[in-house]
Amino acid sequence: MGFDWPDVAPAMDKVIEELQEVKDVYKSNKRAKIEEEVGDLIFATVNIARILDIDPEFAVNYTIDKFIKRFQYIEETAIRKGLNIKNMTLDEMDQLWNEAKNV
């Protein structure tokens, strides 16, 4: 059909454009518009995956698994250090998150 980007670069520019549109509208009370713009952003990101021949479902599931493992590391390390995760600051959890990335 010919209605496609010639390569990935303009598709990446489109993601940046769609992200800006989300930034422009997210503080409004216009939920339908926010949903529309978030949907556009997700669609544009999936389009990059398509162009790069990446299965977006596999990529998202891989990231979810990575998140779960890293968060489990935070929980387990907090317990090992005698910390209650509910009382930890975001900075403390982020430090453990960064440790988990190197495990």
UniProtKB/TrEMBL annotation:
Keyword list, A-Z: Hydrolase
Annotated NTP pyrophosphohydrolase MazG-like domain residues: 12-70
Pfam families: MazG
Keyword hit for Hydrolase: yes
EC number: 3.6.1.8
GO molecular function terms attached to this record: ATP diphosphatase activity
Gene3D superfamilies: MazG-like
InterPro entries to which the protein is assigned, alphabetical: MazG-like_dom, NTP-PPase_MazG-like_C, NTP_PyrPHydrolase_MazG
One of the GO BP terms on file: dATP catabolic process
Name recorded for this polypeptide: Nucleoside triphosphate pyrophosphohydrolase
Organism: bioreactor metagenome
